[in-house]
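Checklist before submission:
- one chain only
- standard amino acids only
- sequence pasted in full

Submission:
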Amino acid sequence: MANQATHRQIAVVLEELSQEVEALGSALCLDMDVAVKHMDTLQAIDLIAQKQRSLATLLESDCPEKSVEQIAIDTLRDRMRLLRH
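Returned file contents:
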């Protein structure tokens, strides 16, 4: 039961971090010069937030195997599949 509580708290922190990272990326996008010059970096920031959100969902899942298959990011889904073998 303690393990579940720990996973839940980790998931909460990951979700909070994803929101903070997304907000940072959005703030940077408001400056068109930054957005144009650093589009790849801004997309990487968005990808970090997506990965954090996916991992949070995975930690909270009652059926991690099923949740792994629902991860939209191919590279992350493949990495999580490797953990099962």
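Reviewer check: The longest helix spans residues 2-29.
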